[in-house]
Specification:
The chain is an alpha+beta fold. It has 1 helix and 5 strands. It has a 5-stranded antiparallel β-sheet. Strand 3 and strand 4 form a beta hairpin. The protein is rod-shaped.
């Protein structure tokens, strides 16, 4: 009768190796899930920044109707960028870039077409971007006060 010494050691090592490989696979899967949820958070943040750009134009118009430069034949667009920081002047959250199309601001249309791009992250290292388009009606009420509202807002998604 021949005795095989150490065969149980090899079986234990193989089982340990299999369990180790399964553990590494599960950990890498969890890391990918965390990265995916972080990217989703950045996408939502970029969408909120794009919406903030649309609201910024509307609010500035509401407080100062001369905010939009008077259109002439040469200037049909104007653009600006603003950085958004955490409450209390903390770290930068991101920024939005607003492009205002002035080509339809005169009657009979009386509409401003606004495109806003929200960017989460910094200008040098953007993490996520989202784009929104809106049309602001420039009609005034019967008493002559200006009231600016969005006629439509379209979410153009991330890019």
């Amino acid at each position: 009768m021949v005795r095989r010494r150490g065969s149980s050691l090899i079986v234990v090592l193989l089982v340990t190796l299999i369990l180790f490989c399964l553990g590494v696979g599960l950990l890498s899967k969890r890391t990918l899930q965390y990265k995916g949820s972080y990217q989703s958070t950045l996408a939502v943040q970029a969408r909120a920044l794009a919406r903030a750009g649309l609201e910024d134009v509307r609010t500035k118009l509401q407080h100062d109707y001369r905010f939009v430069p008077q259109s002439d034949d040469n200037a049909k667009h104007f653009q600006y960028t603003e950085e958004v920081r955490q409450v209390g002047g903390g770290n930068s959250v991101g920024f939005y870039t607003v492009d205002v199309d002035l080509s339809l601001q005169s009657p009979p249309f009386s509409v401003l077409r606004v495109t806003s791009v929200g960017t989460a992250g910094t200008m040098l290292n953007p993490s996520a971007r989202a784009k929104m388009y809106g049309e602001i009606g420039l009609d005034s009420t019967r008493d002559g006060t200006a009231y600016y509202e969005y006629l439509q807002v379209i979410d153009l998604g991330g890019f």
